[in-house]
User: What shape does this take?
Amino acid sequence: MVFKTGRKYAITWCKKAENYSSVRALKCYDEAIKRDPEFAEPWFSKGIIFARSETWMWDDEISPYIAGMAKPRRYEKFTGPIANNYVETLKCFDKATELDPKFVNAWFAKGNFYWKHDDDGKAINCLDEAIALDSKFEPAWFVKAQVLDFLGRLEEALKCYDKATALLPTDAKEKRYDEHGRYYFFDRWYGKAYLLSELGRHEEALKCYDKALEICPLRAELLERPLSKKGITLAKLGRHEEALKCYDEATKEVNYRRSKLDPVEMDLAKADALSELGGPQERMLKCYSVAITMCADKLVDNKRNPVSEYNWEKGVKKLQEICSQAINGLKKYNDY
Assistant: This one.
């Protein structure tokens, strides 16, 4: 059988890869590269598969493919990163942008990968390349906003959030999330709202939280973040009754083991709102007590929950802060 080369055969293998996942897809992309080594698409697609192997632990399919490593023996502890995962991922993205310097998705994917692995400068450079090629490429504006926010460049970050939210599709609520970074669309409004609140622009932040909640899928684990942060913003504006409703709604169906909410912080927020509203006292005291108990429990040093000296000191300091907050809340309640 004649080994057929050329772009059309490479495209055929890329399309075939779409029907598979992980290793079978990788093999298809390798076949595509053999047919046309100058075709950027399979290099990019390989990079995406490697980049999504985020566990950095042993993976029965991906690990041997990337590194040629022997599988650890059963029960053998394997805590180190997959050798060459980071290098192999970037090698694919670099090859894709080298072969096609106008490959917007590849520049974005490379920037997003750098951002997730703490190389902020290179992340911004790659995202800027994507934006320069397509100023309406919304995911790049969103991720750049996150990077700038992390770096403390808040005004620049806000401009990027403005761009990202302005470019959201009209059917964002129905689509729910984009196909590039796999981020939910409501995160654009949520990130912008949180940043505005940090800048002290609370009224504007509330409008953005409402936008986020409007297009957020009705799932407890997604609603909890914008609801809780909206409550905190309302509290800063002295609207404690509305804040308490947000806290209650955010924690109504929350599973704290999976949640991104801090149960101690949420009970403190509820207790503070109740102290400002004048009770009911029983609920307020219960919320403060639960927060204090949860914090104190973390200081217990036993076989199931060992605590280092450093963490113990941090925990004691945190407990002192919570107790002071509870005492101040009780004073507010008594002065109500």
The chain has 17 helices and no strands. The radius of gyration is 25 Å. The domain at 1-72+79-100 is CATH 1.25.40.10 (Serine Threonine Protein Phosphatase 5, Tetratricopeptide repeat).
